[in-house]
Amino acid sequence: MKDQPVKTITTDNLLIAYLEHGSSDGWPVLLSHGFPYDAHAFNEVASILIEAGARVIAPFTRGFGETRFISTDIMRSGQQVARGFDVIRLSEALGLKRPIVGGFDWEGNSSCTAAALWPEQVSGLVSYAGYDIVDVNEQKHAATPSLERVCWYQHLFQSERGRECLAKNRYELARMLWREWSPDWQFDEATFARTSKSFENPDFVAVATHTYRWMHGLTAGDPSLQSLEGILTQKPKIKVPAVTIDGKTDPLKPGGTADHASMFTGLHEHIITNSGHNVPQEAPQVFADAVLKVHNWLK
To answer: 7-10 and 14-21 as β-strands: parallel, antiparallel, unpaired?
Structure first.
């Protein structure tokens, strides 16, 4: 698909840059990328969905691309409620009527957060991977040594040395993660270069390091969001129709997330595909088919 022009819209805390695919009167889909990717991750998914009549919005999430905080006074938070709120606020600003929301990595998390906290504003969910809401208390405890090794970057970002490493080596570090998380994906340099421009955002390092420090319970979140984070500690079940996806070769999700099924009380299907972490670019047909399945359930 030919790259779409970047559009922007202002919410109460962000100037959000986004790509729009399809007709403005299409059925709405809001697809969000994680770290370290950008909105172009959904180009091929969008090209499939617009053939089925969708209007696809793919934002550059906070800290990426041309998205900017509207004030220096706003906390550069990367916690899940802040990012979930971004999904809802963008939907409202664009006048989307109960879009299907979906994402991977951080934004699988934010899409699940949006669906759990604001189900009246979301019609359906596609999540890579599973019920992806962070349990901070659980994250304070050790995982298996093999998974701790895979999560080396999260441990690195806990220190100021790690912040400096990301600031000085963001492109090299991101390329390493792409290769480690998607071992069978043969991306070319042009694909990486297009995305890596989004890492030049002035808040990229601040948001990324806060995300992982907050997730590990080592730094505070935005006090104004604490009551909503409190709701998420109760692990609310997701009521909207949902398709969840696992990639067989993703080292971040050993064993997959099929055991999350009980966290979905509406229509739900779990899919396992032969890909790594970046399903939208490695297996765009699989991700698009998941969105189409949710859309067909809603008819």
So the answer is: antiparallel
Evaluate the CA torsion angle 42, 43, 49, 53 in order and state its sign. positive
Nearest to 79 by CA among 180, 230, 197: 230
Q: What are phi and psi of 208, to 5 degrees?
A: -65, -45
Residues 135-185 pLDDT 10s: 999 999 999 999 999 999 999 999 999 999 999 999 999 999 999 999 999
Closest among 85, 105, 99 to 32, alpha carbons compared: 105
State what percent of residues in the chain have pLDDT above 70.
99
Query: Are 284 and 247 contacting, i.e. CB atoms less than 8 angstroms apart?
Result: no
> How buried is residue 181: exposed, middle or buried, by Cβ count under 10 Å (0-12/13-18/19+)?
buried
Q: How far apart are the C-alpha atoms of 243 and 116, rounded to whole Å?
A: 14
Q: Determine what percent of the chain is predicted with pLDDT higher than 90.
A: 98
Cβ neighbours of residue 223 closer than 8 Å, sequence gap 6 or more? none
CA atoms within 13 A on the CB side of 267: 12
pLDDT tens per residue across span 98-134? 999 999 999 999 999 999 999 999 999 999 999 999 9
Crossing angle for the helix pair 284-298 and 43-51, to the nearest 10 degrees: 40
* Pair of tokens at residue 39: 């909105």
Q: Residue 96 is encoded by which pair of tokens?
A: 């989307």
Under a CB-based contact definition with an 8 Å cutoff, are residues 220 and 75 in contact? no
Q: Global pTM?
A: 0.97
CATH numbers and ranges of domains, the chain? 7-298 (3.40.50.1820)
